[in-house]
Design a protein that fits this description.
By secondary structure, the protein is an alpha+beta fold. It has 7 helices and 10 strands. The strands form 3 sheets. Strands 1-6-7-5 form a 4-stranded antiparallel β-sheet. The longest helix has 20 residues. The protein is globular and about 55 Å long.
Length: about 270
């Protein structure tokens, strides 16, 4: 499932491609991928312009010039492609937004969705999300404050979208490895110095992942050389049986609250 870095990468690239361009056609092939009737969706979206694109947690928000907002959550298996009908992937398209000769194709939206809301409704939809970990106002003091009475395993805390928004299964493992903290450790057992390192690791890992375009393996458009660049930089995720790049121990995999989790048993004690 795409996490904060992947959606931030998508946001940056799509702003360059479709911002301020009129939507010339709307195609919906799976009504369950939207939250209204196909006719209503077409009438609200078709002919409008995307004034801006923003990200909140793992969501993308397409702000239309008519005041409506498209809320995208790719969930498991969802991805996008921007291009022509000739170079698009040979995959089932759930929703297609056209911008003249090129279109934005939404693929794999079986669990994900592209819903449309008013500005008031969007606030309600996102109201339960925790703070953005890379926000300039999300300070160490704030992090120490919200973790002062936090219980539960570190792994579970990091993926809790009510606690922090945007971190999922992959980057929680990378953060724990970078901080040299075992993902099974209890939050209330962490010393201040460990919480400080955890905060710094969150910001470091996410920023680095954004820099290298996240992990999505499929390009967003023809000639896209940035998307998926972080795949080569994962230190522990999906590297069970390999040697730890820090200490040389063999990396392990286990289930933490039904989530596959990768870590080093030696330097993440």
């Amino acid at each position: 499932m795409p996490e904060l870095p992947e959606m931030e990468n998508y946001k940056k690239l799509l702003v360059e491609k479709i911002k301020d361009n009129p939507i010339t056609a709307v195609e919906v092939n799976r009504e369950k991928s939207i939250n209204t009737s196909v006719d209503s969706f077409r009438s609200k979206v078709g002919g409008s312009k995307i004034e801006d694109i923003s990200r909140r947690a793992k969501y993308l928000l397409f702000h239309l010039d008519n005041g409506e907002i498209l809320l995208l959550h790719l969930m498991l298996g969802g991805w996008m492609y921007y291009g022509t009908d000739e170079d698009k992937p040979d995959r089932t398209i759930q929703v297609k937004l056209s911008f003249g000769e090129k279109s934005l194709y939404f693929i794999g939206l079986r669990l994900g969705y592209l819903n449309i809301y008013s500005e008031k409704e969007i606030g309600y939809e996102l109201q339960d999300l925790g703070p953005e970990p890379l926000d300039i106002n999300f300070s160490l003091d704030r992090f120490l404050e919200i973790t002062s009475s936090k219980r539960g395993k570190v792994k579970n805390t990091l993926v809790d979208q009510h606690f922090l928004s945007g971190i999922g299964n992959r980057y929680s493992d990378e953060v724990c490895w970078h901080a040299q903290i075992n993902p099974n450790k209890q939050m209330n057992d962490l010393e201040i110095i460990e919480k400080t390192q955890l905060y710094q690791s969150i910001r470091h890992v996410l920023a680095e992942a954004i820099q290298y375009g996240g992990y999505m393996g499929t390009p967003l458009f023809k000639g896209d050389k940035s998307t998926g660049g972080f795949l080569n930089y994962f230190k522990v995720y999906n590297r069970e049986g390999e040697s730890c790049q820090r200490c040389g121990a063999i990396l392990l995999r286990q289930e933490v609250s039904s989530r596959k989790t990768f870590y080093c048993p030696n330097c993440q004690k």
